[in-house]
Amino acid sequence: MNNGSKYLASLDIGSSKICCILAAKDAHEISQIIGLGYNEAKGISNGVISDFSLATKSILSAISEAEKQADIKINKINISASSKIVTTKLFNKKIKILDDRIKEDNINESLNLVMNDPYFEGKKILHAAPISYSIDGANGIKNPIGMFGSFLEVDFIISTIGVNHYKNYIECVTKCNIDIDQVIFSGLASGIAVLNDNELTLGSVVVEIGATNTSLSIFSKGNFLFSEVINFGGNNITEAIARYYGISFSEAEKIKIMHASAIEHSADNEISFEAPSINYDNNEKFVHVSKKDLHEIIKPYIESILKWIRLVISKSGYENTISKQLVLTGGGSQLDGLEILTKNYLNFNSRVGFPKEFKISLENTLNPSHSVALGIIQSILKVKEQEKKQDFNILMAKKNKFSFFRNWISENFF
Questions:
Q1: Looking at the DSSP assignment, which residues form a beta bridge with residue 25?
Q2: Is 230 within 8 Å of 309 (Cβ atoms)?
Q3: Euclidean distance between CA atoms 226 and 218, whole angstroms
Q4: For 185-210, what is each residue's pLDDT tens digit?
Q5: Cβ-proximal residues to 5 (8 Å cutoff; 6+ apart), any chain
Q6: What CA–CA distance (Å, rounded) separates 110 from 98?
Q7: 352: three-class secondary structure by DSSP
Q8: Which secondary-structure segment (H or E) carries 64?
């Protein structure tokens, strides 16, 4: 099969894994996963291409696996850009309206003026969207098109990536003989994948815990508003377990997944088991592991990340304008008891966010680690749906080729 018009392909280039997903609409217009490829992210460190050859091979392996499952040759793919190397900022521009009524061209003009800022030198724009308007000093305008006014003021949220990082991403994928359609910020994609319409509208926090990084994104009124990242992820907890017990990283990862918990249980003292030591090949003894000790090892790491989340929300400027809703996603979010501890510690309604709106065969399963790859597909499908409903044109600065997801949830936008 070789028909690119009938499917969408996405590629999440993470810090520990590469995930490629192929999706298509079935006869009932339901999105179905038809191919899923997964591979270790070799040659990639903290979202940065560190070894071009290894990274290309890792990407090609994940793509090939998805192609084989779907019996499709991918010609064009949509890829993620890691939160670690993407910067998101708020920009404001006020312009004079020469005609009586405000037109879409006026918003284009505002955006073009913002993009003339020296800040954008050496940067590639991944996402730009207007998030609020005021006309002649009156705030709270939802849709200024067609309204009378002398001055229009627009707030834009814009995410950028360094040009060289962008080129490295592009080169690694195109070396696999595949063209790139769009590059989408992973923080935006994960939110689209796991938030429901009410959470997007009322305002929510999405925390994606990856292997080496944790990102925090804020959404409200259908808009992506804010993002920040820290060099901490699930691997830090795994390494702490490995060091404490003197076991291999792979063994520590198994223990973390199967036995570790963010909350202490009354029966922890009674539960213990053995694991092969790091010198197992030399016939050294097994080490004794208790659930109580395991909890004490990971506790300070979890508390540190929760303190960081609270600090970032506080300094974001959006703490009082969003609901008390926090969604955990990413591979690290699957730690037992994490959502309960998060709720108790931050006083937020917390849940683990699973990708939604997709059907998948019994051979594969979806979990929070697939959020970014699925969010890329969902964001594109949302825009396509809006185009069908409203016959509007997505604003696009063609010379920069950046994706402009304008309030993809709101049906009254433009």
A1: 31
A2: no
A3: 5
A4: 999 999 988 999 899 999 999 999 99
A5: none
A6: 13
A7: strand
A8: helix 52-70
Burial class (CB in 10 A: 0-12, 13-18, 19+), 272: middle
Calpha distance 10→79 (Å, rounded) = 6
Nearest-angstrom CA–CA distance, 167 and 179: 13
* Joined tokens for residue 15: 């810090």
| pLDDT single digits (tens) 46-82 | 778 899 999 999 999 999 999 999 999 999 999 998 8
Residues 295-336 pLDDT 10s: 999 999 999 999 999 999 999 999 998 999 999 999 899 999
pLDDT of residue 179: 94
> Which token pair is 248?
């291999």
DSSP 266: T
What is the C-alpha to C-alpha distance for residues 109 and 265, in angstroms, rounded to an integer?
Answer: 59
The pTM is what? 0.86
349, amino acid identity: N
Fill in the amino acid letter for 18.
Answer: I
Residue 282 — pLDDT band, cuts 50, 70, 90? low
The per-residue DSSP string of 113-168 comes to HHHTSGGGTTEEEEEEEEEEEEETTEEEES--TT-B-SEEEEEEEEEEEEHHHHHH
DSSP code string of 344-400: HHH--EEEEPPP-S-EE-TT----GGGHHHHHHHHHHHHHHHHHHHH--PPP--TTT
- Burial class from Cβ neighbours inside 10 Å (0-12, 13-18, 19+) for residue 72 reads buried
3-state secondary structure of 66: helix
Say whether 23 sits in a helix, a strand or coil.
strand
How many CB atoms within 10 Å of residue 348? 22
Mean pLDDT of 338-361: 88
Say how far apart CA 123 and CA 81 lie, in whole Å: 13
